[in-house]
Structure formats: structure tokens, C-alpha cells
Amino acid sequence: xxxxxxxxCVESSARLHLGFYNFFEDNVAYGGLGVAIExxxxxxxxxxxxxxxxxxxxxxxxxxIGEFVKxxxxxxxxxxxxxxxxxxxxxxxxxxxISLSIAYAIAKHLNLGYTIRELAVLLGRGMDSxxxxxxxxxxxxxxxxxxRVVSGxxxxxxxxxxxxxxxxxxxxxxxxxxxxxxxxxxxxLDEKQERKAMDIPHQLPKELQYELYKLLLLNIIPSVLSxxxxxxxxxxxxxxxxxxxxxxxxxxxxxxxxxxxEIVKTLQEHGAYGVGQSSWGPTVYGLVKSxxxxxxxxxxxxxxADELGLECDYYVVRxxxxxxxxxxxxxxxxx
Length: 335
Description:
Elements: E1 3-25, E2 28-48, E3 53-56, H1 63-73, E4 78-84, H2 94-109, H3 116-122, H4 131-137, E5 141-144, E6 147-150, E7 153-154, E8 166-170, E9 176-183, H5 191-198, H6 206-226, H7 229-251, H8 258-269, E10 274-277, E11 284-289, H9 291-308, E12 312-317, E13 325-333
Parallel strand pairs: 3-4
Antiparallel strand pairs: 1-2, 1-13, 2-4, 2-5, 2-6, 5-8, 6-7, 9-11, 9-12, 10-11
């Protein structure tokens, strides 16, 4: 006779962090914007077990995340299978997506009753941006409210009230395609390095801060509502230039590295409406309308990467306009 096991599975995917529209004003820092994308993905399945077990089939080291989630949730008798994961520290929000996927699968499997935002606080997510949490919850394009600053510093969220709120969210049209390029062998800032850059926010000159507000309120949000990909893309590119300049003291330039900068130039030269770097990079992206055009530009990018001797991972993806998926599997196992 076979034993039937019940698995609780969660699927999520990467997000692009498109930058900040506010750095530090009226004791609020790091109001951000971003979008969930279809690939790369996270897939985690959990079952009951006699002991804690982490089975990792993803090829990405997630052992630290598994142990941390176990400790924070206070669980022992679960077996976690990580079937797919996003590479760490490349600008695609991997830590938040993997952490929430594991924690949410455990919470659902054991009926612990946690909401996604309660888990985010428990796991220390949302320190600087709420985009990853919102992408996990709802998908689509998101603008968040930023973080409250206490005595000049951004502190770890202690409750759900401390997490950035969603102030605008919308699906993106299905014919908008992101060309996402990830140079291999390069890492953005890890979470310890990030603290040096983010803990004490600095004000922008008033005219630059005004320009960011104007881009968001007069261009970016209206262009999403009117489905104007060119206006959206041009505004994102301008916003990214200001954001990259702000962080240039930490990453050595507007982009994290020469490799990412070269790819961005190639995307622009061959017809991408808008370009940018996601988070600390090295992931960069271009945005176009239609998959055919995206693939045509991608061929130019791969040719340029070959010419420069760069090895890259490539994705041509749409926005993921829904939140993480939870589903259940009943599987018989022979003994």
C-alpha cells in the first residue's frame, strides 16, 4: 500500500525594481516603483515530516533562507522542496520572493493563519522597499508609499504599519514586453553592503525631487492608465537617470558596472522605448510593445554581448499581473 502525502506549493517570480520617486522628504524615505515579471520563477513545495528537511533542486543556494524561516516560524516537522529559485543579489528581488514563498507555503500547510504582510514583518522584509512584498501579494505594476524615518535612519519594520503601503497598483498590458538581461559573474550589493547605502537617506536638491514627483504623477501613472508604453518608458528612463546618479557614490556610476551600461546602450540603440537597471543590478532591462520587436532587439543585444565577451542570461517577459499562486498536490509514495 502506498502512503498518500499532501504537498502545499507556492509559485512566485522575480520583480524589477524601477527606482525611487522620493528619497527623503517630510520624514519619509524611499517611495518606490516596480513590476512583477513572469520569469525567472520561484517554486516551493512543503509537506509534513518527522524532522526539518530542506531539499534544494534549484541550483541556487537557499540554505540560509530555509534555516531563517524555520527559526522565525518556530517549525520543525516540515520538509521543504525548493524546485525553482531566482539567483541571489542580481537585482531581481530573490531573497524576498524565496523567503515569502517558503514561509507562505509552511503557513498554509500548517494552517498557521499568517497573512503575507505578517510574514513579511516576521522575516524582516520591506526594510527599504515594499515592491517585493506587493509583487508577491498582487503582481502588476506597483508604487509604494516609502518608509518612515526615525531620527534620521530607516529602521527595520516592527509591525505591518511600518511596511510601505501600496498607493497605486495596476496590471500592465499583455503586449508590453520587458527584455531582461543579467550579466553573469557579477553581483549587486548584498544586504550588508546595502545597509551602508540605505540606512541614512539623503535629500535630493529640490528641483530634482520635484522632477521625480512630476515624472510619477504626470507621466508614469497616467501612461499606465492610458496604456501608453512610449510615455511610460521615457519617464522611467528619466527617473532611472536621477536614481542612478543618487546611488553612483555607492556603485561607482549611474549603473553598477560597465557590462550593464553597455547592454543598456545597445537596448537604446536598437529601439527599446525605455531602459534601466533593476535595484543594484547587474540586471538591466528594456521595454517595448510586441514580442516580435522584443526578440528582434534581443538578437542585437546577444550579438553585442558576444562581441564584448559577456555571458548573460536573457528573458523576454511580460508583467505577472497576479500574486503568488498557492496550490495543493496529493501524491502516493510507495514504501
